[in-house]
Specification:
The chain is an alpha/beta fold. The protein contains 24 helices and ten strands. The strands form two sheets. Strands 6-7-8-3-9-10 form a six-stranded mixed sheet, with helices on both faces. The chain is elongated and about 120 Å long. The C terminus is likely disordered. The structure holds adenosine-5'-triphosphate and magnesium ion. Adenosine-5'-triphosphate (ATP) binds next to α15.
Length: about 625
């Protein structure tokens, strides 16, 4: 790209990206510079080459002026040929140099994208579960895409634009003023007439662009939510497809309108700039020509001035908008930094130890817990709310104490919302307790390393999530080194062997989004198989509340038997068959343990457990024979 081309395109991007400056701190600027540091050598080379390239761009008009002067003076032919040869050489050099400059700036820009993307991805992965329960996935993904690209433009667009425009402007002005200060000054008089409306224009255009970006984000949120298997099911069952389509169409047509207006405004802007510089050109020819006839200027000088003028207007306009451009780039950086600044609530201690070997005891001592408030874990802009909730969450667990001896199975039962899943999540350290402690093999879970925790504690969650991948890779998530033999072994133990063998693609069968192509029972057994692959010392099962048909029920029961064999287990149980196998049953109500004992003890005590037994578990047994596969759990 020629210098002129670069100037024009950076001018255009300047006009597009006017976002206004909303409270950018010095800190952001400092950190942005910090981010550019690894690229300082490339940046230096870039600036130096830009200077050379700008000098070359000015050289051609000067040489052209000398050609004209030689013609007027009727010099020897070889003078003109030599000058023409020089012009050709400059063109060749310029082309080569442009390529190198473009290569460097592309490298800079893409390098920054890479750095920011990996930093954000890495950081988001470390965020606590609480963060993910609050943020909108769409907003987060857009942060990774749009804002990172916005930040990249700061380097490849803004920075290169400003550097090359300034250099070009200064050199061009020096040569023009040297040639004829009078003509130069008069030619510039027209500029403000253009610049003032141009800035307003830019702001209007930016407003439109922002609106389109928001609309696009809304559309993609609507699509990601509605086009997922559970979302689509919901729309089919309860939604109003016609209304959804209307809403979508309204947004899409607004985007179309904005597109048309932007195109027109863009055209008007370019045409206006062309017009103003053409008028200035007329002035140069008129005034310069008159001066040349009067003898105070050479014919060649008029040509030099005319040629240079076209290289003056674009950089001038671009630089006039540079401040806004920088601001908008900083806004993007700021939005990325905002994510990087979120503190992960759950961190690994530097002194973390691994889980001791062998069957382990599990102990909760006076555990109190409230789900963290929004301002601790999240960002308003990601939650789609204006102000974050600062209220501390209400305490959900009020002093839970129990102990499971190595190899024992503890069953948690209780009403919906009692706190059973919460207890399970504290044991696998998805959250940290507010007071009290959770110990595995005598070690506080907060003192365990993340790797140790993953190897030592296995959990099957209530929703039994699977990725939209093959059965093999879903299982290998837990153990990337697992061989096919190992996989078939755990499938057999989870009573899924026949099922998997009957599949057309076997282990390569893709389970569908969130495992929606499997029945509820199959999905559960697959998550149990995943757990069997790890062979953790401690097992946590958060049973789905859904009832299963009797075949599935028996299969899941058998799979569970395998999973619990010889391990310490915490089971959030909804089915009588699971509950009866437990060594101890804890009845949880309103965040407290209200009863504990064996099935027989508790039935004999005819308290809350006996009540639950009669109203829920016994009924569930009855329902088993009727219910088919059912997917959703109730929490
Ligand atoms: N991520 C969360 N943020 C805030 N509050 C939560 C969160 N998850 C659960 N709660 C609240 O904590 C309480 C206990 O929920 P929990 O999921 O532990 O119940 P549960 O006993 O597992 O119920 P179920 O049998 O229906 O699965 C409920 O009042 C619930 O509303
Ligand atoms: Mg639950």
């Amino acid at each position: 790209m020629s210098m002129e081309g670069a100037a024009w395109s950076s001018l255009w991007s300047t006009m597009r990206s006017d976002k206004g400056d909303g409270g950018i701190s010095k800190d952001t600027l400092r950190r942005t510079i910090q981010f550019a540091k690894p690229y300082s050598r490339k940046l230096l080379v870039f600036v130096l080459l830009s200077v050379v390239s700008a000098a070359l761009a000015v050289a051609t008009p000067v040489l052209a002026g000398q050609v004209v002067d030689a013609i007027v003076a009727k010099s020897a032919v070889d003078v003109v040929v030599k000058l023409a040869g020089l012009i050709a050489l400059v063109a060749l050099l310029d082309a080569g140099l442009s390529l190198v400059i473009r290569w460097i700036s592309a490298n800079l820009g893409e390098g920054v994208i890479l750095d920011l993307r990996t930093a954000v991805f890495d950081h988001v992965q470390r965020m606590p579960i609480a963060f993910f329960t609050r943020t909108r996935t769409g907003a987060l993904v857009s942060r990774l895409n749009n804002d990172v690209i916005g930040a990249q433009q700061a380097f490849s667009g803004t920075l290169s634009g400003i550097v090359s425009n300034s250099v070009q402007l200064v050199l061009t002005l020096i040569v023009m003023l040297n040639t004829s200060w009078l003509v130069t000054v008069l030619a510039l008089v027209l500029l403000p007439i253009f610049l003032m409306p141009a800035r307003r224009f830019g702001r209007r255009l930016a407003g439109l662009r922002r609106e389109a970006a928001n609309l696009n984000a809304d559309m993609s949120t609507q699509m990601t939510e509605r086009f997922s298997a559970p979302g689509a099911t919901l729309v089919k069952l309860f939604g109003r497809p016609a209304e959804e389509s209307r809403e979508f169409a309204a947004r899409a047509s607004r985007v179309r309108d904005i597109g048309v207006r932007t195109a027109i405004m863009q055209f008007v802007f370019f045409t206006a700039l062309m017009l103003v510089s053409s008028l200035a050109l007329a002035l140069v020819y008129g005034l310069g020509g008159a001066l040349a006839i009067g003898g105070s200027l050479n014919a060649g000088d008029v040509v030099v001035l005319a040629l240079l003028l076209t290289r003056l207007y674009a950089p001038l306009t671009a630089l006039a908008n540079a401040r806004v451009d920088i601001m908008s780039a900083l806004v993007s950086f700021d939005r990325v930094f905002e994510i990087l600044d979120l503190k992960p609530l759950i961190v690994e201690k530097s002194t973390a130890v691994s889980v001791p070997p062998g069957p382990l005891a599990v102990e909760f001592s006076d555990v109190r817990f409230a789900y963290p408030s929004a301002d601790k874990v999240s960002l308003a802009s990601l939650e789609d709310v204006a102000v974050l909730d600062t209220r501390g969450g209400e305490e959900v667990l009020h002093g839970i104490s129990f102990k499971a001896e190595p190899g024992q199975t503890i069953a948690l039962v209780g009403s919906s919302g009692a706190g059973k899943s919460t207890i399970a999540q504290l044991l696998s350290r998805l959250y940290d307790v507010d007071s009290g402690s959770v110990r595995i093999g005598g070690v506080d879970v907060r003192d365990l390393s993340f790797d140790g925790l993953r190897a030592g504690v296995g959990m099957v969650t209530q929703d039994g999530h699977l990725f939209h991948e093959s059965i093999r890779s879903n299982l290998r998530l837990a153990k990337p080194t697992a061989t096919d033999e190992e996989i078939w072994d755990v499938l057999q133990r989870a009573r899924l062997e026949d099922f998997a063998k009957a599949l057309p693609d076997g282990l390569d069968t893709v389970v569908g989004e969130r495992g929606y192509r499997l029945s509820g029972g199959e999905r559960q057994r697959l998550t149990i198989a995943r757990l069997l692959l790890v062979q953790p010392a401690v097992v946590i099962l958060d049973e789905a509340t859904a009832a299963l048909d009797s075949t599935n029920e028996a299969a899941v029961q058998a799979a569970l038997g395998e999973a619990l064999e010889g391990r310490t287990a915490l089971v959030v149980a909804h089915r009588l068959s699971t509950i009866r196998t437990a060594d101890v049953i804890l009845v949880v109500e309103g965040g407290n343990i209200v009863e504990r004992g064996t099935h027989e003890d508790l039935i004999a005590a005819s308290g809350r457990y006996a009540e639950l037994h009669d109203t829920q578990f016994a009924q569930a047994v009855a329902a088993v024979t009727e219910a088919g596969t059912s997917e959703a759990d109730q929490s």
